[in-house]
């Protein structure tokens, strides 16, 4: 299953790479026909698409490689680096586009054959939108940042090209050539924002920043499938490396259980989490023995060592489960209140 998913990701990013090469050629031909600065800006940005898609293809190939001695957690983090690399390239391209737009405002040049050039741009919008949407959809399913980053890049390219078509229409209607350079300025600013967003997400991933959406998904899985034997979960940490998910936590179980039963319960706990994730999932669970304070929120009915009657459940949420302390502290506070 995992092998098929990796191959599918590679085919999708290869499609993006080939399409980017062809569409970049079309945009430069449209610039040759029109001498439009806005179209040139769009074509220059498409060079970034080619480079980024090529690097994304390599990163997805590398992230699919199995763990080895030097990379015990796998190679999935390369996808964060790929997204950051793509974001940095986008920001650099946006700076060149803005500089060129300012120069053309100061030194205007004639524009021609706008209708013919716009036809090529409309075709690139259609292709980029279809491929970009596919990459985004599949990237979210596979939790692949490289696919998502490339998909967002293509979608932003479609939006910027659509803005370009609007500016061309305004030039044809009004005859004001300066609209071309102003559109390039807006285009450059739009690209800079998208590039910064990608780079920021990449840095957060490389620094193992908490993904709140992913954490909440894991917490909801635990809540939905909570068993009576799972007395307490704490010190929960969730990290995504490419399509691989890494989870570690402390699970409180009855202290009088035999090792075999503890092992089976932890195994079932891990399978519950794995069944709710499409990619490879690696889980490390530290078993903690219960304390007498846990009796207040423990639901094991036939517990032979219970010292206190059950009082109330503790609602599991991400704020509680990530703490490195047992939940009986909060239970004690609630009971006192």
UniProtKB/TrEMBL annotation:
It is found in: Membrane. Residues 212-290 form the Cation efflux protein cytoplasmic domain. This is Ferrous-iron efflux pump FieF. The chain crosses the membrane at residues 12-34, 46-64, 85-102, 114-133, 154-176. The keyword Membrane applies. The keyword Transport applies. The gene is fieF. Its main location: membrane. Belongs to the cation diffusion facilitator (CDF) transporter (TC 2.A.4) family. InterPro entries: Cation_efflux (IPR002524), Cation_efflux_CTD (IPR027470), Cation_efflux_CTD_sf (IPR036837), Cation_efflux_TM (IPR058533), Cation_efflux_TMD_sf (IPR027469), CDF_Transporter (IPR050291). It is a multi-pass membrane protein. It holds the Pfam family ZT_dimer. Residues 13-207 form the Cation efflux protein transmembrane domain. Keywords: Membrane, Transmembrane, Transmembrane helix, Transport.
């Amino acid at each position: 299953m995992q092998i098929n998913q990796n191959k599918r990701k590679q085919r999708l990013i290869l499609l993006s790479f080939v399409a980017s090469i062809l569409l970049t050629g079309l945009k430069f031909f449209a610039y040759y026909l029109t001498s439009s600065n806005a179209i040139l800006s769009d074509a220059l940005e498409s060079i970034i698409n080619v480079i980024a898609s090529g690097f994304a293809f390599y990163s997805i190939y590398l992230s699919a490689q199995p763990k080895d001695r030097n990379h015990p957690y796998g190679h999935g983090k390369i996808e964060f680096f790929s997204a950051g690399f793509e974001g940095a390239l986008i920001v650099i391209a946006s700076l060149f586009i803005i500089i060129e737009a300012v120069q053309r405002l100061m030194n205007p040049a004639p524009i021609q054959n706008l209708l013919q050039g716009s036809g090529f741009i409309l075709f690139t919008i259609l292709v980029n939108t279809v491929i970009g949407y596919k990459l985004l959809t599949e990237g979210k399913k596979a939790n692949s940042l490289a696919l998502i980053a490339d998909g967002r890049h293509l979608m932003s390219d479609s939006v910027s090209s659509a803005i370009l078509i609007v500016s061309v229409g305004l030039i044809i209607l009004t005859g004001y050539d300066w609209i071309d350079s102003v559109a390039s300025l807006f285009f450059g600013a739009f690209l800079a924002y998208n590039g910064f967003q990608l780079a920021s997400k990449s840095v957060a991933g490389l620094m193992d920043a908490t993904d709140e959406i992913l954490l909440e998904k894991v917490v909801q899985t635990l809540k939905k499938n909570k068993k009576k034997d799972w007395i307490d979960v704490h010190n929960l940490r969730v990290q995504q490396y490419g399509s691989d998910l890494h989870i570690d936590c402390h699970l409180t179980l009855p202290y009088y259980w035999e090792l075999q039963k503890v092992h089976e319960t932890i195994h079932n706990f891990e399978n519950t989490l794995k069944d709710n994730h499409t990619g490879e999932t690696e889980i490390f669970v530290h078993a903690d023995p219960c304390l007498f304070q846990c009796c207040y929120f423990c639901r094991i009915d036939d517990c032979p060592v219970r010292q206190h009657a059950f009082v109330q459940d503790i609602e599991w949420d991400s704020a509680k489960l990530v703490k490195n302390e047992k939940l009986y502290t909060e239970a004690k506070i609630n009971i006192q209140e």
